Amino acid sequence: MLNTLIQTTQEGPELLTDVEPVEKSLSIIELISSGGLAGQLIIAVLFLMLVLAIYIYFERLFAIKAASKVDSNFMNQIKDHVTHGKIDAAQILCAQVNSPVSRLIGKGISRIGKPLADINTALENAGRLEIYGLEKNVSILATISGAGPMIGFLGTVIGMILAIFELANAGGTIQMDVLASGLYTAMTTTVAGLIVGIVAFMAFNHLVVKTDKVVYQMEANSLEFLDHLNEPS
């Protein structure tokens, strides 16, 4: 009897050590599918917003980069043509370059002969149109950066409501798999909304910086053009 008890005691730790913990892995697809219909719909909306934000970012980035490329000798050629009275040649040069700066200077050249105040007004109006073209659809990024986390938080609220509803109707017994569905909805939509918001926010600010550089470039060339016109002949 004593030998049997000692043998059982010696084998106990071995039996306990033989049980290995089961590692549970969960992929992103499984995580989304476990969130229920409400979570999947919100994730789908957030995914479409992310795709739209990425498309707008790269489309505007390439457009702004193309707009910022101006030959360093462009203004020297313009001033040379204007000094020698070759207005037509200056306008042709502006049409060939086809950039915001060249279109701005071209508008000023078309007003040569009028008072400087009128030329300055024409340049300002043309500048506003060019800035509007550069900022096309950029405001959508700002909207996505704010709406993304809010939509994700909406999914969080829906998930918590579902979890509380299951607790209220559990009848004293809590089924963890049913409860987990609501928690999955709450957590996955929150993470997805934050990711979309962060990506859109960073893309928006980067495009704003790039656009400001082009705007400063246009302002500098406009002032240089007006100063040249104001020089005594």
Report a brief summary of the structure.
This protein is mostly helical and 233 residues long. The chain has helices at residues 2-18, 28-33, 36-68, 74-83, 87-97, 100-110, 116-134, 138-168, 176-230. The protein has 9 helices and no strands.
Structure description:
The protein is mainly alpha-helical and 233 residues long. It has one domain. It has 9 helices and no strands. The protein has helices spanning 2-18, 28-33, 36-68, 74-83, 87-97, 100-110, 116-134, 138-168, 176-230. Helix 5 (87-97) packs antiparallel against helix 6 and helix 8 (138-168) runs antiparallel to helix 9 (176-230).
- Tell me the structural class: mainly alpha
Report the β-strand fraction as a percent range.
under 5%
- Residue stretches low in confidence (pLDDT < 50, at least 5 long) are 5-19
The main β sheet shows up as:
none
Please work out how many helical segments DSSP would assign. 9
**How far from one another are the termini?**
123 Å
- What is the overall pLDDT average? 78
Query: What gyration radius follows from the Cα positions, in whole Å?
Result: 33 Å
The H/E string reads: HHHHHHHHH
Query: Could you estimate the helical fraction of the residues in percent?
Result: over 70%
Shape descriptor reads rod-shaped
Q: What count of domains describes the coordinates?
A: 1
E-strand count: 0
